[in-house]
Write the structure tokens for this entry.
Amino acid sequence: MTADSGYEGAVNDFEQARQETVRYHEELYAATDLGESGTWLAEPDPLLSTALDLVPDDRPTVAYDLGSGIGRHTVPMLRRLPPGSQVYAVDLLPSALEQLADAVPAGISTVVHTRAMDLHDFDFAEPADLVFAFSAIEHLPRPGAVRDLLSRIRGAMRPGGVVALGIIADRVEIRSDGSRRPALLESDLSIDTSREMLADVFADFTVADVQLRPAEVEEERDGEHYTLASTLFDWVGVAP
């Protein structure tokens, strides 16, 4: 949301938004188990299944889960990818990756590598068959940094590799009195901006799936209840 968007308030400060992101996830992960019913950690988003159905299954593959958290999507990847595959789980929070490591199923031959870092600083260790990022790239410091990451993803893809992105866009907080304000989010991406960046960076990809999913969730911050409204922009592409 920009200052001239028609909503109350100015552009969010990055550090304030980052602190809110860290607070929210640390509290959630401390209070909620992976797979806990009634939470968004109960099961993977359907975007993961769409992506995995496109990944080659006749050989070991290399996959990246960017913004992995405690393993909502990483653990299902480990179960579904061919034996001998490798998964790189990347997240800002070391504590989340520790929980993820404890959640790795016994007897799985797929190897998981955890990387505690900001996606702004992340470089790919080896070429990728799958890059999955769900509610992750919008946590970079600005749209230009998002584009830089998308370009690094494009450069990391093997022929036939799959990129699956779930981008939280057009996000706004709605107070109980109906007034609106910009949501605390590091990069305030719109659907239009996201479409333009993807079309440009992945111009040579085959687009396998695109969906827009409006969502509203009830949240609380500093004792105030509000509705967090957004649109989830799903995009899946296959490298030439």
Residues 1-12 have pLDDT under 50 and may be disordered. The first strand starts at residue 62 and ends at 66.
